[in-house]
Design brief:
By secondary structure, this protein is α/β, with parallel strands linked by helices. The protein is built from 9 helices and 7 strands. The structure holds zinc ion.
Length: 253
Amino acid sequence: MQLAPFYPLLYRVLHPLFPTCLWAGDQNIPMVALTFDDGPHPEYTVQLLKILDHYQIPASFFWLGACVQRSPAIAQAIYQQGHWIGLHGYDHRSFPLLSPRELQQTLWQTQIAIATACDLPPKAIRDVRPPNGLFTPQTLKLLHQWDYRPVMWSVVPEDWTTPGIATVVTRILQQVTNGSVIVLHDGRCGGTDVAAIAAQLIPRLLEQGFRFVTIDQLWQQRSLDTYFNFSQGDEISQPLITSTGDSRATPGD
Ligand SMILES: [Zn+2]
């Protein structure tokens, strides 16, 4: 069964329920974030990188630690091209199935793999997208406690079922709006088409006047929006606290 039609509905339900996650950016600014899960992949990611480079588009990647360890040179190339890097667990196990200790391990192992490949401090990599989109309030509590930033999505074209390049592009164009966080996959499931999808999608979005931003830029924009809302005296029932500073705790803390 195709689940693609249900994702917009799911987004509308979940977004207000879990406001501390990043679901989308500012709806008043014509910007979108392209995000890619499940890589890096030695073939699909390399093809994708050429398209992003051609259009000079920044993207965000949520990596699996096991894939980073298999392809560290590709990981390094992506980072050096200026893309934003986040965590997707070490081996794609769903977070609600893990004990707190296992969750901590899967994230930390992935941070170490990325830090080693990209020559980064492990604690600089703190954006987390849960595999299979599955999380619980307890998962989020732990992520916040360990100073990670949970990142979700607003446009899910279900590319991992490989419904065809044109179908994926059409689904995205039908749903895209200011601030959209678009999820695609450059790994084993869906990665075969990812470069061709990006090659068709990016020029269409540019034509429509969208600017491409990273997930980190969306967090920064959200901090600004929150600040200005407070300054203007607007009531915010649940303040969105998104530190972008360096006061990060170790997951072990
Ligand atoms: Zn995934």
